């Protein structure tokens, strides 16, 4: 089985991630994940694979000035952008560069651990869960958000990449949607000694701006950015048209 690809971004790609991926793809899901956590003022929360911090900032507003939030991410570029964005007034967020499978963090230190769309990129998922269990206080709670499958947009993008770039790039793009099935997720949590494991399925209809423009901006904020940038202007335009035409049945006004 191929190892999951860790989400590494270079140059100004993390800034583009904050501009395009967060508002349209990941950001809309963050409030639901935070709501499920039922956070209380004063709690200490760890956001694993925090990216540019969309979840961490929502959490900070919930736990308030008496709580504390730590955002952990392997990618220095993501954290650099996170540090430039304002935290809610009176709150505290600490940004830490590090791996989810070997956290340089103390035992039993966080009441709640959250992870939005990072789990599928961990090269050793059981090790990541064991680390979460280690740094969680007894009786604490962990909430992960992962995709169930690829939706129409991602299928259209992957097919366009396969046609206009190559199968390897298409597979690399879809790595974010390669997630263990529900039964496997539950088994991994139980083996990491978590109790009361629950899995909730939910759905959302994404709302994107003009697809033919958005798709190239989005791809510039992903690990396949370099490959797409190496295409000619005509090839990139053809790729964008491919996605737009494939999604015509999904368009509204």
Helix and strand layout, with pairings?
Elements: H1 13-26, H2 30-37, E1 44-48, H3 54-63, E2 68-73, H4 76-84, E3 93-97, E4 110-116, H5 125-135, E5 136-145, H6 152-164, H7 167-173, H8 182-191, H9 211-219, H10 225-229, H11 233-246
Helix pairs in contact: 1-4, 2-3, 6-7, 6-11, 9-11
Walkthrough of the structure:
With 253 residues, the chain is of the alpha/beta class. The chain has a single domain (13-250), classed as Rossmann fold, CATH 3.40.50.150. 43% of the residues lie in helices and 13% in strands. It has eleven helices and five strands. The protein has helices at residues 13-26, 30-37, 54-63, 76-84, 125-135, 152-164, 167-173, 182-191, 211-219, 225-229, 233-246, and strands at 44-48, 68-73, 93-97, 110-116, 136-145. A five-stranded parallel beta sheet has the order 3-2-1-4-5. α2 (30-37) packs parallel to α3 (54-63) and α9 (211-219) packs across α11 (233-246). The longest helix is centred in the N-terminal third of the chain and has 14 residues, at 13-26. The chain starts with 12 loop residues before the first helix and ends in a 7-residue tail after the last helix. Residues 1-6 have low confidence and may be disordered.
Which labels suit this protein?
11 helices; alpha/beta; 13% strand; disordered N terminus; globular; 253 residues; 43% helix; Rossmann fold
Q: Structural class, from helix and strand content? A: alpha/beta
Helix-residue proportion: 40-55%
The neighbouring-strand order within the major sheet is: 3-2-1-4-5
- Low-pLDDT stretches: 1-6
Query: Main sheet?
Result: 5 strands, parallel
What is the terminal-to-terminal distance? Answer: 43 Å
Q: Return the average pLDDT rounded to an integer.
A: 93
The CATH class turns out to be Alpha Beta
| Element-level helix/strand string | HHEHEHEEHEHHHHHH
The helix tally amounts to: 11
């Amino acid at each position: 089985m191929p190892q999951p690809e860790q989400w590494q971004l270079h140059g100004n790609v993390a800034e583009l991630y904050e501009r395009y991926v967060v508002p349209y793809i990941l950001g809309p899901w963050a409030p639901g994940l935070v709501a499920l956590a039922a956070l209380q003022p004063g709690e200490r929360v760890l956001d694993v694979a925090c990216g540019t911090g969309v979840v961490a900032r929502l959490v900070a507003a919930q736990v308030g000035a008496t709580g504390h939030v730590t955002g952990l991410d392997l990618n220095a570029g993501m954290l650099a952008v996170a540090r430039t964005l304002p935290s809610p007034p009176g709150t505290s967020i600490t940004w830490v560069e590090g791996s989810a499978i070997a956290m340089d963090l103390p035992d039993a230190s966080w009441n709640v651990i959250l992870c939005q769309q990072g789990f599928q990129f961990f090269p050793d998922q059981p090790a990541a869960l064991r680390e979460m269990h280690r740094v969680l206080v007894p009786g604490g709670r962990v909430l992960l958000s992962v995709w169930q499958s690829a939706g129409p947009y991602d299928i259209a993008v992957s097919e366009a990449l396969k046609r206009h770039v190559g199968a390897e790039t298409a597979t690399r793009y879809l790595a974010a949607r390669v997630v263990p099935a529900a039964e496997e997720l539950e088994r991994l949590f139980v083996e990491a000694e978590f109790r009361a494991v629950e899995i909730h399925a939910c759905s959302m209809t994404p709302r994107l701006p003009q697809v033919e423009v958005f798709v190239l901006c989005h791809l510039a904020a992903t690990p396949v950015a370099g490959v797409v940038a190496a295409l000619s202007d005509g090839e990139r335009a053809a790729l964008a048209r491919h996605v737009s035409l494939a999604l015509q049945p999904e368009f509204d006004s």
